[in-house]
Amino acid sequence: MDRRHFIGTGAALSLSALLPRGASAAFTPTPADWRRFEITTRVAIPADGKPVQAWIPVPSVNEAEWMKSEAPSFTGNADSAELKTDPESGAQFVHAIWNGGQPSAELEVAAVVSTRDRATDLDKPGQGATLSEAERAHYTAPTRLIPTDGIVKATSDMITAEADGDLAKARAIYEWVVESTERNPETRGCGIGDVASMLEMGDLTGKCADLNALYVGLARAAGLPARDVYGLRVAPSAFGYKSLGAGSSDVTKSQHCRAEVFLDGYGWVAVDPADVRKVMLEEPPKDLALDDPKVRAVRAALFGAWEGNWAGFNFGHDVVLPGSSRDSVGFLMYPQAEIDGVEQDELDAPSFAYEISAQEIGA
């Protein structure tokens, strides 16, 4: 059987059935106390007297159950700097402009967020928040890199053909992504999330922005509102998974994209198949199988829950950066910059140059 077309009997299993015996506490995010973090991005772009622009994403997700963002502060030698909001997605960023003459374009942006674990009891549908027709249309619409027709729609239909109801469809897509994809350590950054190309080429490998975008695209094609949540790991995992947390206060390369699906009766539900694949590849002794207890524990939890050692920046796709020479960026999770109108490589932090740190602070 071709595993890339395998839906898997796991789609019909309950979360408890996926947990290994004696490992119920191995990975069990549970809403509890809030934690507060300060995230600081420091930019020192080698301008050599040329004009520079920079767009620095800041946390702008505010969800009552799991994250609160505070207004950022920023200082530097820019000729102008302003907090701006993308009108389509609500993504926020500091837009700084240096008119020219400085050897180095410098900026420091500090943002404070409060986070905590989240979990939805999928055995108990309640009176979850409803979506307006406009919101439902927005979160089922295609984006430049996430179409909802063609091969994406055909694949989604195949996966959900025997699923009865939205919860079953959402779970079937999650299990299919877990079963059918692989994390590729050679992928730069978090990937680009070109969903149709992945399916057309039969190359279902990549990192979080690829694998979780695949989930979002398949869910939207099934008529389920879904969204990527672009953000940053800010602390180690409390459950002993080194791959699922930040290893130090230096989080320059700790970006991570998660996903959510909206289910009537439950509201927005956490989904992260990409982190299941990350655990399989990176947790000792590495190259773990799907039936390994560590993998089974996170696989069970990451449909419905996630750990609060991560801060969400935004839900944005096709984000327009004011003043940029580009029409838009597929998503805004990394600092962006242009020197004399020339786009800089946001994945090459030392040359860009920027660094990001995170520290836990008092309530």
TrEMBL record:
Flavoprotein among keywords: no
Gene3D superfamilies noted in UniProt: 3.10.620.30
Transglutaminase-like domain segment(s): 200-275
Top-level lineage group: Bacteria
Keywords on record: Plasmid, Signal
Keyword Signal: yes
Annotated InterPro entries: Papain-like_cys_pep_sf, Transglutaminase-like
SUPFAM superfamilies: Cysteine proteinases
Annotated signal peptide: 1-25
Name the UniProt record assigns to this protein: Transglutaminase-like domain-containing protein
Organism the protein comes from: Alloyangia sp. H15
